[in-house]
Protein: Restriction endonuclease
Amino acid sequence: MSTAFRPVRHRYEDALSRLSWRDFQRRIAVHFEGAGYVVEQPGVANDADRGIDLVLRRGDETVVVTCKHWSAFQVPHEDVHRLLGQMPVVGATSGLLITSGEFTRTAIDAAARFRHVRLVDGRALRALLGPVEELRPFRLPPPDSPIWAPVTSTPQAGRREPASRAASIAAVAAMLVLAVAMLTLYTWYIRDAHDIRASQGDVAGTDRVYRHAGAAPAPPPFAPPPRPAGTGAEP
Structure:
């Protein structure tokens, strides 16, 4: 058993070393998917598969993968033996131990005794994956940025409500004026009709008075004078 972790001889300071361990594992999975493998991520559901990060399947080949995203310390030989113990769990035909950093000399020697176990260190991994896009850190805008300006209503929105209210008041006023005008015209019409009936009633009453007294009513204006009684010729 190793008594202490050994620091790396060369520490990488690049985009790959700054990935989270989840993104690091995902990047490796994407690479092997592109190589034609079916990639499984069993996780740590129980103690039997603890330490298995990926399972690669392609035809009759089954590969167990353990990912060590270490940048400060070397991966010791204990992880090589742990990988060997996990291979029978899924019936693996080979195993891969991958790190973003370095392995100890004893780990390299232990893997060399087993031809179905391979080690991939940081240098080989970077050559395998190719360039990794640098993640840009999120930065807040400066205090004088327009994004910090308080939210206010626009002048157009402020003028729109009084204008609509004035239009409603004007419409109601116009309807009231129209109603008053119609009521006035109707009143005049009723009054004129009543006066006409009253005058017709007075004329009829006068005719009845003349007939009852035996006197002929006055001739209409511009009528010729009545002819004298007993004369048969023009004067």
Observations:
- The first strand starts at residue 38 and ends at 40.
- Helices lie at 21-34, 78-90, 105-112, 122-129, 155-213.
- Residues 155-213 form the longest helix (59 residues).
- The chain has five helices and five strands.
